[in-house]
Every structure is written in structure tokens, then in C-alpha cells.
Amino acid sequence: MRMHIDTDVCTGHGVCEGIRPDVFEVGDDGVVHLLTEEFTEDDRQDLEDAVDQCPTQALRLEG
Amino acid sequence: MPEQHLVVVGASLAGLRAVEAARRAGYEGEITLVGAEEHLPYDRPPLSKEFLTGEVEPNYFRDEESLRTELEVDLRLGTAASELRPTERTVVAGGAELAYTGLVIATGARARELPGTPALDGVYTLRGLDDARRVRAALGPGVRTVIVGAGFIGSEIASSARATGAEVTVLEAAPVPLAGAVGERMGAACAGLHQRNGTDVRCRATVAAIEGAGAVESVVLDDGTRLSADVVIVGIGAVPETRWLAGSGVALDDGVVCDETLNAGFPGVYAAGDIARWPNPLFGETMRLEHWTTAAEQGGLAARNAIDPEQARPCATVPYFWSDWYGSRIQFVGVPTADEVRVAAGDVSADSFLALYRRGEHVCGALGLNQRRPVMKLRALIAKHGTWQDALDVAAAG
């Protein structure tokens, strides 16, 4: 699984961080950054929720 | 076992997320998606923001090909559902009877009308894409624009209209805007954005009449004040679109009454988004939210519950909404009814502050103006029933 963040589209709502604060974080630059890129199948539902609930559709999950 | 058929009524965000979630969960039965509008599912928040200020295209979430082929959806747009017979597991839409095994009700809400508003050119509400196109065409430099309602929609339209060069007056019946959404003190703080950006907001202003001959000419207030107007936009909230469910047996009370799993009281019937009223176990309160993220979240959950009711999960969520005015972002998480509201960072008379809402020993809400970093940390904290001190620590960390 790979998580992509389109930082041109992200405006730092941080909904993803609200779902998984150990994976996503809104930075001082006002956009979201990944804190880890190591995911297991147990993470899948949360990551899909983050993609689905991103208000700017900036997230994409591959694999 | 009968053929599986998931019917999703409402083809906006909640309905789309329902369809996507069902397929992702491995559901292989039929799916029918019914939408009253002719449009493919599109994103609504931009309609009161950047869509009004430039020639931007609507943001469609998916194209028709991906809906029909990738998600294998029988797509029925321009088709309003007219009847639900839950004991027969049948929906009537566009004259066709659809027998379902699972149903997601996601017909959302419609703009609330100002009672007694005459049918004059230049008077609008803003809910859908067609509305937004009409409003966009009407705005422009020097256009005298009266906005009725200083809530989030009215305020966003005011900000956008100002950006087009329109002359804007905002009328609010309440003493303070947004009191229900964020509390009186913070409502006043948010309204300060209008003042600092030169928009005329008049509180305790009740519309007595909208007048004109063919096209709108003026708005008359109950104190006799007469405002000349080329355009009037009514933004006084939304009403859940439950008319098609009248007489169905589904319990209605300002929305569809659901249980914790969003079940609407009949087998296989779930509701999602603006229309769903459900007990949110995180707060022990019954809620109906008109928030973008709630629609996305509930759409997915309602579909997963509808296709596998035995494993149905509750909808436990911390409300989140945002609003963008004059280049500033307002974000709110949680619930606003609190024992104390404390400004924990910044200054309410300036363009950046963070306010925390306390219930007993716990944080129950947070409002940020241009405070992107801490707000969602606080959402996660509220979801864990974090303490007031934890919230103060998050605020202090910035």
C-alpha cells in the first residue's frame, strides 16, 4: 500500500490527521505530511476513510 | 438466497461514497444509484466559494464511465424517488419499482425558503450547481446584493460576492450570527471578519417584504428600512429532503430517525448525510449534521451496514465543518454547547485565534480561525474524551 498526497490540492483541513494522527500531520506549511509510509492490512480501512473524507480529494491510496 | 440489490437514493457525496464503499467491501450484487439532479455527483462546498468568483468548472467526483463500468452502477440521474414501501422492500423512482435488499437514503436537504418570497427575477437560494450558475451570472461589479442570513452559506456568498466587486449587505435576524453553530461569543468573533473586510452586516434585521415588478428592486425590513437590490440571495439554512418518505412508515423528525448504526427502523434501510438524525454515541446526543465530512463518512458506513446488517457498526464521529471567508479559514470540531469557552491562542479581534469548548473536565469542541495545525489534533482528542488540560496543552503547543 502506498499513500499519495497531492500537496497542490491539499489545504490542510487535516481530516486525515483526525482519523490517524500517527500517520498524517498538518505541518507549519499548512499542508499534510506523512509521518510513516509503512502500512499493513490493518491500516487499510482507516486509510480508505481518510481518502474518502478528504475535503479536497488530495489523497490517493495505491495497492 | 435472493439476488442482492443495493439501492442508493441520492447521488451527491453520501450516495457516491455509499456506492464506492459497497464495492470496496467486496459486494458483488446489483447497485442502483438514483439522483434527482441531472448532474453526475459533484462537490458542493466550492459552489458558495471559488465557483462564484471565476469561470471554474464544477468538480465532478467521477465520470459516468467509471460509475457505470468500474463500479458497475445502474445510474439513474434526473430521476427523483417518489415513494418507499419498506415492508415490501421497494422504492419507486421515475415510475420504476426497484426491489432492494439494502437501501441507503441519502436525499440530503434543500434550501430553506423565506416564507412569502415572491417569484421575482434576481431572487435566489443556493444549494445545487444550477443555483450556483444562476447566482454567478448575476454577481459582478457594482451589483447591489442583499444576502438574507449571516450563517456560513450567507457569509461565504458575501465574501465571494465582494470578490466580484458587488456591493453587499448581509441581513441577520438574530442578535449575533452563528450562535447556534459556535456559540454567541465566537459567532460575534467570526462576524468580525465581515467588519474587517468592509461588508455591511446588520443583525436583528428581519425581512418584511421583497419587492419589485418582474425583477427584484428592494428589500424592506420590519423597521421600515428599504434597501435597493439588484440581487437577493436567501441563505437561511436547509431542510432535510424527506417529502418523498411521507406516509412510508419511516419515522421522520427533522430528518430520518435512525439508530446508532444509521438504520431507519426497517430491515436493510439506512440513512446517511444531511438527512440522517441519529444518536451519536461519542456525545450521547442525537444529531443531524449538514457537514461535508459527515456525508462522506456516513455514506460509506450506511452502505457497509446495509449490505451486512449483522456486522452493522455505530456511527461515532466528532462533527467537523469549515468555512472560508475573505481568504481566512474557520474550522470547528466537536459540539458548541459548553460550560466554558476559552480563547487559548491568538486574539478574537484579529485574523487568527483558537477557542476551546469545555464540558465538565473534558474538551468538547474547538474553533480555529486560521489555525490549521491544532484543530484536528483536538478532533482526535475529543474522540478519545480527552481532558481539558490535554486540550490546553495541545493549544499551547500550537
UniProtKB/TrEMBL annotation, chain A:
InterPro entries: 3Fe4S_ferredoxin, Fe-S_cluster_ET
Cofactors demanded by this protein: [3Fe-4S] cluster
Superkingdom assignment: Bacteria
Protease listed as a keyword: no
A Pfam family that the UniProt record links to this protein: Fer4_15
Keyword field: 3Fe-4S, Electron transport, Iron, Iron-sulfur, Metal-binding, Transport
Keyword hit for Hydrolase: no
GO molecular function terms listed in the Swiss-Prot or TrEMBL record: 3 iron, 4 sulfur cluster binding; electron transfer activity; iron ion binding
PANTHER family associated with the record: FERREDOXIN
Function: Ferredoxins are iron-sulfur proteins that transfer electrons in a wide variety of metabolic reactions.
Name of the molecule in the record: Ferredoxin
UniProt organism field: Haloechinothrix aidingensis
Automatic annotation (TrEMBL), chain B:
Keywords: FAD, Flavoprotein, Oxidoreductase
GO MF term list: oxidoreductase activity, acting on NAD(P)H
First and last residue of the signal peptide: none
UniProt cofactor(s): FAD
Cellular component aspect of the GO annotation: cytoplasm
Any Pfam family hit: Pyr_redox_2
InterPro entries noted in UniProt: FAD-oxidoreductase/Apoptosis, FAD/NAD-bd_sf, FAD/NAD-binding_dom, FAD/NAD-linked_Rdtase_dimer_sf, Reductase_C
Record's keyword annotation contains Flavoprotein: yes
Positions of the Reductase C-terminal domain: 320-388
Domain of life: Bacteria
UniProt keyword annotation of Oxidoreductase present: yes
Residues annotated as domain FAD/NAD(P)-binding: 5-299
Entry-linked Gene3D superfamilies: 3.30.390.30, FAD/NAD(P)-binding domain
PANTHER family according to UniProt: APOPTOSIS-INDUCING FACTOR 1, RIESKE DOMAIN-CONTAINING PROTEIN-RELATED
Protein name as it appears in the record: NADPH-dependent 2,4-dienoyl-CoA reductase, sulfur reductase
Species in which this protein is naturally found: Haloechinothrix alba
